[in-house]
Design goal:
It is a single chain. The chain is an alpha+beta fold. Helices cover about 15% and strands about 25% of the residues. The chain contains four helices and 13 strands.
Amino acid sequence: MLSLCCSQIVLLLLLLRGAENHSAQKACGFPHVFSPRIIGGKKAEEGEWPWQVSIRRNRLHICGGSLISSQWVLTAAHCFEGVLNLHEYQINLGEYDLPKPVPSMVSSAVNQIIVHPYFAGDGLSADIALVRLEEPVNFSRTILPVCLPNSSDPDIFPVGMACWVTGWGQISPDVNMVARTLQELEVLIIDVEACNEMYHNESDSYAMPEGYRLIYKDMICAGYPEGKKDTCQGDSGGPLVCELNGTWYLAGVVSFGFECAKPSRPGIYTRVTSFMNWIQHTMEQNVAPSGRAISDTLLLLLLALTNVLL
């Protein structure tokens, strides 16, 4: 009969958690498919962005999101307005063609929605939320997490860097209809101060009053000063990802803009590095017991530790 002292049990639990986190980290940020609308974008390849999810409310697509672990999705806080009824929401993973779900697509119920406590409304800071799936999802060719930045340094994604944004939002500012298939768009990171100045441009009725600050340090500005290419309604909550050393990292969450693809009105994203502590703390504090069987990797580790401790 196996007998473990308290310190050995604690060590075992820590090792199990470490192995699980290590496995998730190894899996993130490496899509099996890559080919080098969102307005002005193009159709993505199926499985090219396997962390992209579709958030549904009463079966209708309302927002995008990013799978960041086997049970957590990161998205925008403004996707969840009013009283939340969890039974109205579901998360579709491995989605590609909205009207024609493929057999590999997984639809998950929602166990919990956690909106950042500092979020106060559209166009403001802390537009970020975490969604916990009812059960952990199995990773596949079309379902994989994106990596989170392992640094809170805001300059890890420098000005001028080319990154990608994906979603099923409107492909034309004049047509109120979401895209049928997942769209992708390459955008450039724009300096926050320069972006704030652009929004004070008086070329249209959406110019900001003098002295009013719209873009804050916990936001990322990305797009093109001339417009023409941008996210739009339906893309909210979706991922802005950047490639570093062959691995894809989540840099931003689609947050807001003024109309779509207008000159001097680039897209605004929630800066993920500004909220890493909140993301990690929230996930750690909201771990619920699951009936899912332990993975083969953890089982092997448990058996090895058992032999050592006997």
